[in-house]
C-alpha cells in the first residue's frame, strides 16, 4: 500500500553493502511506503533464498496506530491461502522494528504494466479472472480488502513459460465482515484509501464487499483503456464489456453485482460475446466491426444514446445496454453478438490523474465532494416514462392497495436491523519468571521451565622465542650459552598467559554474536607443547610451542526470554492471549549456579486480551435475537471475556432486537483502556 510519505534516507547503512536483520541479509531497498520500507533480502535458514522483507519505518516504530495497522496486515495475510494472493512467510519484531516477510516477485505491478497502455483481450481475461477469483476467496472468508488498485497487484512470470500469475498484496486497511471499523486504525472522522478506486458509500464509512466490486470495475476499465474513468477521452469499449463496467461501478451498491463470483460469471459471458483473438487490443476494434446491430422497428423505442458518427463527435449521453445473452448448455452453443463500441465522454477534470494514486486519508465531507464530481460509465439520462394507453380498472386498484399495505407491513419488519459492538476484556500481567539452564537437554522445555546449558570450546596455538641463558656444567670462564630449564619455563608461562587472553576474548565475542551469555570464567588446559633445542644444547635462543584449550558454559539469552514470555501467556488464563505491542521482557539475571545447572530470574510483563472467536460471537447472536435492547445488553455483559463497560447495542428503530440472526450485525472493538506495562525487578 503506497501512502503519502516524505522521502527517507537509506536505513541500516545500506549503500551497496549487505546488512544483517535477524534471520535475513538485507541486499537493497526496493520500495518505501507510508508505513514501511521493503527490502530484497536473503533468508539465511532457507539456503539464502530471495525474499521481500517489509519493515515498519523507524519514525513509526513506536506509533501505536501504525503498529496496529502493520499487525492487521500480517494477521489477515497469515490466514489467507490462495494461488493469487501473496503468502506470508514470517512476522515478528527485530531491533525494535516490526517486520513481515513474503516471497520476492520480480515481475512488477499491474500499475507499471498499465503505463504502457491498455492490455490485449487475452491479457485482460487472464489477469482479471485471476484477480476476481482472489477477491471472491477473501470475501468468502469475511475479509474486505478496501484498497484494490493496480499498484497492489503483483505480476509474477513463470520461469518456464509466458504464463503471468496475479499476486494480490497489502491488507493494511482490510476489514472483517461482521465487525465494525476499528477506530484506532484510522484517523478520527476520516477514510483511508485511494480516491479513484473508492466506492461512493465509503464517504459514509460503509465497509462491505461492494467496496471491492467497485474497485474491480475501475481496474477493468483501466485494463481496457489504459486510463482511469476520469481520464478517458474518446475511449472505445466493446458493448459486452460496457454492461460489466456499468454494474461494477454503479453509484448505488444495490445495483452492483451481489458478489465477486457473479461479477466473474458476467465477465466470462462478455468475453465470449466479444469473439476476438487473445492478441487483439481493445483500441484496435474498427468502426465497421463494432457497429451496433440494427434493431427491428417493432422493438425500437425512443433512443437513449448517440453512437459516434464522425471522429469529431466524442461525447454520448448514455451507455447502450447489452442485449441479454440466452442461456446455453455449453460454450459452443453460445450466441456471439456483434461487437459494439461507444465513445466515452471526456472527463470533467479529475482530482487525481495518476492511476497509481497513493493511499491517503480523506475527510468524509471532502470525499463526498470528490465522489460527486466523478463522471463515469453509470450516468444515464432519465428515461421518459410511457403513458398507459388503458385506464386502470377499479378492482385492480383495490387489490393493489391491499397488496401494498400487506407488503409494507412485512417490509417494515424486515427492514429492522441491530448493530452490536463488544469490547474484549484485558488483563495486566507482570512477574519474575524463574528458569533453569541445565546440561543434558537440547531445546527449551516449557513443562520444566528449562533451557539448555551449553559448552563452548576453543583451541589456539602460539610459539614464543627467547634467549638461552644457561652454561655448561663446571665451566667458569668464557662459557658458551646453552638451553636451561628456566629458559623453557619462562617462555611457557608467557605463551600460556597470551593464549588465555586471546581465547577469552574470542569466546566472549562469539557468544555475543549468538545472543548468549557466558557463565563464570572459562577454564584452560594445555593440550600440547614442545621446545627446541633440547636442554643443555649450545644455542643463543630457545623456542617454545604451546597449544591451549579453553572451555566455557553459556546459555542463550533469547531462549530464556522467549520461554519466559510463553510462561507468562500460560498464566493469562483460558481464552486470553498476550498483545504483542504491549509485551516486555527484561534481561535474565543469574541467581545461583553449579557445574551442571544455573538458576535464572527473568522479569516479564504485558497485557492479555480475551479472544472473542467467531463461534462465540455467533452464539451471542443466537441468544439475543428477539430480546429487548436492555436485556440483550445485560446478557452480553455477563459473558466471559467481555468488558461490561463497553457493550453497545443499537437498533434501527424500536426497543427490540430483530428476531432473525441475519439482521443482527455483531463485531468487536479494540480495547482503549490499556493499562500501563511496567517490568518488575528481578
Automatic annotation (TrEMBL):
<feature type="transmembrane region" description="Helical">
    <location>
        <begin position="389"/>
        <end position="412"/>
    </location>
</feature>
<dbReference type="InterPro" id="IPR008271">
    <property type="entry name" value="Ser/Thr_kinase_AS"/>
</dbReference>
<protein>
    <recommendedName>
        <fullName>non-specific serine/threonine protein kinase</fullName>
        <ecNumber>2.7.11.1</ecNumber>
    </recommendedName>
</protein>
<dbReference type="GO" id="GO:0005524">
    <property type="term" value="F:ATP binding"/>
</dbReference>
<dbReference type="InterPro" id="IPR000719">
    <property type="entry name" value="Prot_kinase_dom"/>
</dbReference>
<keyword id="KW-1133">Transmembrane helix</keyword>
<keyword id="KW-0418">Kinase</keyword>
<feature type="domain" description="Protein kinase">
    <location>
        <begin position="24"/>
        <end position="305"/>
    </location>
</feature>
<keyword id="KW-0472">Membrane</keyword>
<feature type="region of interest" description="Disordered">
    <location>
        <begin position="282"/>
        <end position="325"/>
    </location>
</feature>
<keyword id="KW-0067">ATP-binding</keyword>
<keyword id="KW-0808">Transferase</keyword>
<keyword id="KW-0547">Nucleotide-binding</keyword>
<keyword id="KW-0723">Serine/threonine-protein kinase</keyword>
<dbReference type="Pfam" id="PF00069">
    <property type="entry name" value="Pkinase"/>
</dbReference>
<dbReference type="InterPro" id="IPR011009">
    <property type="entry name" value="Kinase-like_dom_sf"/>
</dbReference>
<keyword id="KW-0812">Transmembrane</keyword>
<dbReference type="GO" id="GO:0004674">
    <property type="term" value="F:protein serine/threonine kinase activity"/>
</dbReference>
